[in-house]
Amino acid sequence: MNEIILEVTQNIIERSKTSREIYLNRVKEVSSKKVNRSKMGCSNLAHTIAPMSSVEKEAMSNMLTPNIAIVTSYNDMLSAHEPFSVYPPLIKRTLLQEGATAQVASGVPAMCDGVTQGFEGMELSLFSRDNIAMGAAIGLSHNVYDGAIFLGVCDKIVPGLLIGALSFGHLPAIFMPAGPMPSGISNKEKASVRQEFAQGKVDEKALFKVEAASYHSSGTCTFYGTANSNQMLLEMMGLQMPNSSFVNANTLLRDELTQEASRTLLNLTAFKNNFTPIADIVTEKSFVNAIVGLMATGGSTNHTIHLIAMARAAGIILNWDDFNMISKVTPLLCKLYPNGSADVNHFRDAGGMSVVIHELINAGLVHEDVNTVVGFGLKNYIVEPSLKDNVLTFNKGATVSRDKDIISSVAAPFSKEGGITLLEGNLGRSIIKTSALKEEHLYVKAPAMVFSTQDELKDAFKKGLLDKDFVAVVKYQGPKANGMPELHGLLPSLGVLQDKGYKVAIVTDGRMSGASGKVPSAIHLVEEAAKGGNIALIEDGDIICLDVKNGKLNLEIPSEEKIRRQIKKADLSANHANYGRNLFSIVRANISTAEEGATIFDIIGKERS
Q1: Which end of the chain is less packed: N or C, by CB atoms within 10 Å?
Q2: Distance from C-alpha of 285 to C-alpha of 273, rounded to nearest angstrom
Q3: Annotated binding site for [4Fe-4S] cluster, which residues?
Q4: Which domains does the chain have, with CATH numbers?
Q5: Would you say which domain of life the source belongs to (predicted)?
């Protein structure tokens, strides 16, 4: 094993010792080899089985077979989640053939960031993760289940579902994806037209035509943003069927994988000889493997928040130093949009997760000795699912990339380091995605231009006020200020300026899209402006130095000037009304920092200061 990976793992174990022990003791306390529903009263059980068929009622009543919970995030607003409409009936039929039953325990909200991007609804996006976790827990609280299946794909949904699953750590659990849509227009062409639109070179009709050709059917969007990073992480953590994440939606292979995942979950229940609750799978090593996978594939910066929140649900404490240390020793193995032009379908065809995991195991960069839903050892994920005479088989997976322009090797990586770096300085601590940055963009020293919203920057761009070197400072965009919406609207304008040769960068206490990366962006800055962070002090013309190679982010003004300036309390009331935002005031008041997972949930056994 790589010494740094071992050191980070040990750091996490030591840091988490008390909270992890509390979590595992709580899991043990509620664990039972008995059928949960056998402890229920007659009236309770009657309510449980009332809507079932006679066959299902008999199976449920005899206490001899498992009953499986389905927690679904189905809706037909999200293309990635629309295929889930047929999953519950398919899962139920499959399990009934095995003598088991299943029930939809709960449906959780699932919003599409692609729809809300740049609008008020995006301010509920991050908050929805903890809401989803609570929704999953409410469904499972009926306590008539012997295992749980989680249906989710997109940005906040999978992290929320995993937090909910970990709160029922005594139950076996498995995650099922819907799979990506087929490839549409190339990501390179889409990005180009977006920039042309930002410059006024094409109209909305032309832009819409391109966007509709990119997002064109049911299934997950094909760029490598947060949704597809979620699927990679689930495989790295052993919670999803091997190399199954990027099998296209609404195909026979996808259906067969769903059925096999159902049977796999069944074999993990207490009714079998292989009882494996999720608490036995998700460990400190699992999260280290997940972070390594994030770095090796150039995944979404959103996971520097989500992984921390997910880990805390299991009593495991991560911080950005862990990400930074892992990034320094993990080579970048993948070039997927926005780090390249390929999409996840191309990634799958090049060998997908099988190649990536093989490379990482061979290089000693991941812990192979971990539990997974398909057995002990991450090596179980070096396989490839396929159909032979309409029967699902898992054959030996590719260990060498079929397309070296998409998946490389540890011996010849696209970069010697991973795709995410920690920046520190007198402005605080911040994350920057580096996997898509060119060498000349790793150092920017320029005057600040301060904006309150991304719309202000776009207006300034249209007026021709931004043709110069500058650092765009967008403050009061953190979780406490307005829910930390993604600031995706900044990128087309700044991308145009960067292409013109100007030195530009972003500094913000907000988030960028999981598909961002071309423009150097110091994001997730803590402390945020709404909590008195130094970003609130920045004024137009202040010199900011963003130095990726040395991991520095500094405001270059005399210390006495910084002391002289008073942070004026911003009026954030406009963020708290309309579009449902008023319902989340208690979340804004109690949410933690980005480095603490931007969550309302406390660490197990610890009180938040």
Answers
A1: C
A2: 24
A3: 154, 221
A4: 3-182+217-396 (no CATH), 420-594 (3.50.30.80)
A5: Bacteria
